[in-house]
Amino acid sequence: MKRILLIDDNPEDRMLYRRYLGQGMASMRVEIAEASSGEDGLALFKEWQPDCVLLDYNLPDTDGLTMLEGLQALAPPDTLCVVMITGGGSETLAVRALNSGALDYLVKQEFDRELLTKTVAHAIEKNEWRQYVARYHSELQGVNRQLRDSLAELTTIREELHDKNAQLSSANEAIIARNQQLARTNQDLDNFVYAASHDLRQPVNNLNGLFDELRRSATFHDPEEAVVLRLIDDSLQSLSTTITDLAAVVQEQRSHGEQFTESISFADVATDVLQVLQPQLIATQGEVETDFNALPMLTYVRSNLRTILLNLLSNALKYHEPNRAPYIRVRSYETDGLPVLEVADNGLGMNLNRYGNELFHLFRRFHPQVGEGTGVGLFLVNRLVQGHGGSVAVESQEHQGTTFRIFLHGKNGPG
């Protein structure tokens, strides 16, 4: 449910905006409140905390820029979502509104229902994305602090190792080679600290590589040092998973037109995916039953089909019922001439009446009690399927399980 606050002194305009938003954003489920003055708008904003404000620039008791300052004082930093409605189409006024904190603007009497709803929906999505990035930036700063503290301890160990190596001048070539590797690793770690502290875009897998090499090459006698390294590794894995998922989303959005289709065996793709998920299957004692007899082959982009199946099976294992082993059925068939990939599990399930409209939203999670997961998998599956002209149908019952039916093509064939 999205809350939208209309602040406009003209009742006819408010009625028009309410009707436009009610019709154009019906799938998002919106709740709308109204205020006819700046004073009433500030009071209602403070009490109601809406997801977006549709703000008329010309109000009887103030103007839009002053209202923006007042709204910003009531909202946490970088959380205010305002679409300014200006009169006359002054670009200078629009620029001032955007520079003052508005996410977008519209010119009164120059937009229709479609433009209004698209602008408001985009502003809400942009604001939610901004808040998500801020949260993960904060988490990354926490990881960086842990890294700096741990690397200070590692530097002390490095100096001790250097002193010992200086005393063992008669060591053999193996020890010399090891010391050289340690020196290169330490230099990489120094470079890494700078990159991790200043550049969010630095590939996180470099960090994983450095720590893998450190664990392989160095010996730690203090148990607490091993504990610290393990904690760092856990944090990096969590961050790496999030960044990898985000990279996958970006790659999917940019790759249209660059991929080619081929004839693919469902069994081959499933074997590949199950091999990747073997550790999770062993850990959960899960069982996967496959049946591709009805539709053994498909013309598709191989990497896309693999990603779809990998995400669905990974979710089925991740969100299994704690009191029973996962049992997953995977099959392919045709219905009404359309190829279907079906994945059914006996896991936690979902309340589709409550969450159905949000099922494929980016970063949306429905089982917060499960520590893993970033809320990207189903979003990515849906985007890939839609890219081929297909669709996703879901049936689910809480604590009983979920069935995903992936209509891999649309009625016009491969996308």
Automatic annotation (TrEMBL):
PROSITE patterns attached to this UniProt entry: HIS_KIN, RESPONSE_REGULATORY
Source organism of the structure: Hymenobacter negativus
Location of the Histidine kinase domain: 195-412
Catalytic activity: ATP + protein L-histidine = ADP + protein N-phospho-L-histidine
CDD domains tied to this protein: HisKA (cd00082), REC (cd00156)
Positions of post-translational 4-aspartylphosphate modification: D56
UniProt name for this protein: histidine kinase
Superkingdom in the source lineage: Bacteria
InterPro entries: BphY/WalK/GraS-like (IPR050351), CheY-like_superfamily (IPR011006), HATPase_C_sf (IPR036890), HATPase_dom (IPR003594), His_kinase_dom (IPR005467), HisK_dim/P_dom (IPR003661), HisK_dim/P_sf (IPR036097), Sig_transdc_His_kin-like_C (IPR004358)
PANTHER family: BACTERIOPHYTOCHROME, TWO-COMPONENT HISTIDINE KINASE
Keyword flag Coiled coil: yes
Pfam families (alphabetical): HATPase_c, HisKA, Response_reg
Keyword terms: Coiled coil, Kinase, Phosphoprotein, Transferase
Enzyme Commission code: 2.7.13.3
Domain named Response regulatory: residues: 3-123
Single GO MF annotation: kinase activity
Top-rank EC class of the record's enzyme: transferase
